[in-house]
Amino acid sequence: MPEVLAVCDSGDVCHDAEDSDGRGGPAWLALEWLERGPRGADFGERVGRGLAALHRVGTGGWGWEEDNFIGSLPQENRTAPSWAEFWRERRLEPQLRRARDVGRMPGSAAQWDALFARLPDALAPAEADGPSLLHGDLWSGNVLAAADGPALIDPAVYRGHREADLAMADLFGGFDARFQAAYREAWPLAPGYERERRPIYQLYYVMVHVNLFGGSYVQQAARLLGPHPAA
Description:
Layout: E1 4-8, E2 28-31, H1 43-55, E3 68-70, E4 73-75, H2 83-101, H3 109-122, H4 125-129, E5 132-134, E6 143-146, E7 149-152, E8 158-160, H5 163-172, H6 177-186, H7 193-213, H8 217-225
Antiparallel strand pairs: 1-2, 3-4, 5-8, 6-7
Helix pairs in contact: 1-6, 2-3, 2-7, 5-7, 7-8
């Protein structure tokens, strides 16, 4: 990822010139300049191996030391004792509340209750893997072909289950078969990722899009949520 060189919050006076009201200018972030380079035939493979190496970094518990953002929406990162609790309380529930408040709630309350009830079992493999350092917003637009190789930009970083990054990469496409194969060669996945865990992880990112854009994302979230539980 590009190195952060300097940062200025909007309330700080860290500009040579002041605005007409006497305050400093807008917030800014200065990052290392990455020269663009060719992707090459092995680009996807290099991204897959690099992502697996990033995921091997995971000192600490589920969460992060401070909150951040996913797109323009706040993302809470306060730690939780289990991954299932973190995914429910820090990821799915805040987006569900936001969607419900504006009349965009996908599915029914019974469907959401059924999902929450099965999270501890469904996400149990995460406890065996342990926390990984995640990019947090891994769509293809955040992977840059730099002169010295692939670079990940614009993260929504925290420590979580590594499959959440893979699920986001699968959601909108742009990652080739070499990426998938290289990652799994470097760090194989437990059974049940595609069938069970991927839809649960993708639901968070689609709920973010529900709250940012509405429209067809509401129906997509409902499909990921699954059928109404039997009475």
